Amino acid sequence: MVKEHVRLGGCYLVGGVCLVIGAVALSPPVWAREPIGATRCGTCHIAEFEDWRVSAHARSLASLTKEQQKDPTCRSCHTLAPNSDDEGLAGVQCESCHGIGTYYAPTHVMRDRQLAQLLGLQTISAATCRGCHSGVDARLKPIDYRKMIESVSHKLKDSEQPNLPVRRSSFRKLQ
Question: What own/partner pairs with CB < 8 Å and gap ≥ 24 does 129-135 have?
Answer without folding.
Answer: 131/77, 132/77, 132/92
